[in-house]
Amino acid sequence: MAGLKKFISDTAIYGLSSVVARSVSFLLVPLYTSKLPSAGAYGVVSIMFSFCTFLNVLLTFGMETTFFNFARQSDNPISVFSAALRWVGSLSLILVACGFAFDQSIMNWIGYPEHPEYARYFAMIIATDALVAIALSKMRYDQKPWKFAAIRSSNIAVNVGLNLFFIILCPFLINLGYDWPKTIYHPDHLVSYIFISNLIASFSSFILLLPSFTSIFHKPDHGQIKRMLFYATPLVIAGFAGMINETMDRILLKKLMPVDLGDSEAGIYTAFYKASLVITIFLQAYRYAIEPILFKSSAGGDDKKQLALATKWFTYACAMIFLGTLLFLPEFSRLIIRNATYFKDPRGLEIVPVLLTANVFLGLFFNASMWYKINQQTRYGALIAIAGAAITLIGNFTFIPSYGFVACAWVTLVAYAFMMLAAFVWGQKEYPIPYEMHRIIPVLLLSIGGSALLQLMDANRWFYTPLLLLVILFIYIFEFHAKPKYTNRK
Predict the structure, then answer these.
(1) What is the DSSP letter of 102?
(2) What are phi and psi of 257, to 5 degrees?
(3) Which of 69, 228, 400, 447 supports an S-S bond with 256, CB 3.0-4.6 Å?
(4) How far is the C-alpha of 201 from the C-alpha of 231, rounded, in Å?
């Protein structure tokens, strides 16, 4: 019980910072959609950040999970942290050097040759964020959620503050007759100001974490570094493949759609994708809390029961969030997308339920994939992720030219559904977890299946209210009026 209370407490604290961080996505969407000159301009922002996510995976090199795994086995976690920091630091230096040396060539290839400065901005953003991520993983391992939340929150405050400064305050002051903002502001450079704000926010987190980086001078065990890289490499492959599933669709929209539509399609798709991120916010908070707990509990052989319990309650929460979002989708979407032109295309709202379902499956895949991380079999994760990435690439290349961003949503759903099922089936053979499927499956069928039926019937959205209440009733009956059916499978 004490472990469960600790898990819930940490999830709440990590969740606070994660909710705030992800809420920035919601808060900045109305700013960007209302102030950027077109959906195409917002598409540029989304496409550049999509490339950023791929390089983030490469630079962090799976060292967050790798650190957790090796620190629990070591008498000297600082040595493990130093090894991870040195590796990520080396990759970061290489990226920054390439970003400055080949800026024009990089942006020619991406498709924005008139902005070579974007390559330099993102090289520094990605390098700084990778180092910060490793330092924060040490903080999570030490179970210091409040410090973690404080640093994440400061990053958010700087980022939002600078966005508001450049996009709102500077033009406001210029309209009042002040001349000094003209030295740093030009209305044609709004996209650049978004990237600059992110860069300064990343540096602010780096500075706050400087004391953590002194561990880089601790001499690591070179044999241990090799073992860490061997463990991490499949995670990098899995992470890279995961990013194909998560963000490659924006890039392919630009490459596969006509030149005059690519950025616009990516902008509309990204704006409505934000409406499905409520579940992702919860997943991120859950992941930050559950990973260190499971890795530590695995030493005592209690990880299976804890993962089964956590997965059940994760499913309950996702079902309620899923239905609550659909219930208030029209109001919620207009709250974050403050530009009527985005709603002229009815496909935008239609893809949100599809993406919400996809993100539920992504969360269940995360739970089902913990077995290969704990059990030292990360190669299985790489194989599953590669298969999911293949589905994403084949599906998007096949259907984007005909269906645009609608294809992206459905392909994402299929890919995540496949990965979830593959991880579960494979995991139950290799490392059986006593999931309470007699409770998980009915709740999923009632929430996702019930909502799909309502959509096919074109029912009024207020029918989601009784469906949500029915899910809550089922959970109440399962947890408070039925005897738990735990097994003792190892």
Answers:
(1) S
(2) -85, 160
(3) 400
(4) 31
343 to each of 34, 179, 333, how far by Cα in Å? 13, 37, 10
- Sequential DSSP letters for 272-285: HHGGGHHHHHHHHH
Please tell me the distance from the alpha carbon of residue 39 to that of residue 344, in angstroms, as a whole number.
12
Position 1 scores a pLDDT of 46
**For residue 239, what are its two tokens?**
């992470």
Residue 61: Cβ-neighbour burial (10 angstroms; 0-12, 13-18, 19+):
buried
User: The tokens of 361 are what?
Assistant: 């499956």
Q: Is the distance from CB of 273 to CB of 22 less than 8 angstroms?
A: no
Question: Are the beta carbons of 349 and 276 closer than 8 angstroms?
Answer: no
3 state SS for 27-88? HHHHHHHHHCCCHHHHHHHHHHHHHHHHHHHHHHCCHHHHHHHHHHHCCCHHHHHHHHHHHH
Mean pLDDT by 10 residues, the chain (490 residues): 51 58 68 84 87 85 80 75 86 93 92 90 93 84 75 86 92 88 87 93 91 71 78 81 83 84 85 80 73 62 78 90 87 79 83 92 88 76 87 94 92 94 89 88 91 82 86 86 51
Which CA distances in Å does 98 have to 121, 196, 231? 12, 19, 27
Neighbouring CB atoms inside 10 A of 481's CB total 7
Q: Are 224 and 70 in contact (CB under 8 A)?
A: yes
Q: Is the dihedral of CA 257, 260, 263, 268 positive or negative?
A: negative
Task: Report the C-alpha gap between 161 and 201 in whole angstroms.
Answer: 9
What's residue 488's pLDDT? 46
The residue with tokens 């920054």 is 96
Judge if pTM exceeds 0.85.
Answer: no
- Under 8 Å between Cβ of 42 and 272: no
Residues 7 and 289 sit within 8 Å (Cβ to Cβ)? yes
